[in-house]
Design a protein that fits this description.
200 residues, alpha+beta, 2 helices
Length: 200
């Protein structure tokens, strides 16, 4: 009986140790995965594809709504989980003509809008420095200013928008974008897109 009791006690001790070891490994693995998921990255490089929409486009002498394909490239430096600063670049990959928000002097004198001018844009590139504030881990608001460059003419711009990031792997994010560009004395546009970013 003493031998049986000793064997039973040994088996229970081995089981307890095994259970403790398995639980410890599970807790360590869970803690490691959480630490990876919550790791904070300061640098962010993103590439996106989308469409830019312009309400005052001109085609065949008629005013039309334009939906133009565009690409975006951005770099962001995060100071902390809430605040960041970024350089956003967007290129429209088509030539187009748009109505200008400026009036010709003759139109101003006559009080009519018949002489509203048009602006030619040759694959313009918009470059803006923006401040970003995250109101939620999946929502960041942005605002800033910069320039739109084209072979025809350059315009200053003001940009506002939002980003919707989703962290899907260590060092990687998917994101959606929604923004509006107000070109000073020129025209306005808004765009939306989807992209992937590398964080480091």
């Amino acid at each position: 009986r003493d031998l049986d009791s000793s064997l039973v006690g040994s088996e229970m001790c081995i089981r307890d140790r095994s259970t403790f070891s398995v639980r410890a490994q599970e807790e360590e693995s869970h803690h490691h995965s959480n630490s990876e998921h919550k790791e904070f990255y300061h640098n962010y490089i993103g590439l996106s594809i989308g469409h830019t929409h312009i309400s005052g486009g001109v085609r065949d002498g008629e005013t039309k709504w334009l939906a133009l394909p565009s690409f975006g490239l951005s770099y962001v430096y995060a100071f902390n989980p809430k605040w960041a600063i970024g350089l956003h670049n967007e290129m429209i990959v088509e030539d187009f003509v748009v109505q200008s928000s400026r009036l010709e002097p003759s139109a101003i004198r006559s009080g009519s809008d018949e002489d509203v001018t048009t602006i030619k844009r040759g694959r313009p590139i918009a470059v803006a420095v923006v401040g970003i504030y995250k109101i939620h881990k999946h929502i960041g608001l942005l605002a800033g200013g910069g320039m739109e460059f084209s072979e025809h003419e350059d315009f200053a711009l003001v940009k506002i928008g939002a980003e919707f990031p989703y962290h899907f792997a260590p060092g990687w994010e998917m994101f959606g974008t929604l923004s509006a560009d107000f070109k000073i004395d020129a025209y306005n546009s808004f765009s939306f897109g989807f992209g992937v970013a590398r964080l480091f």
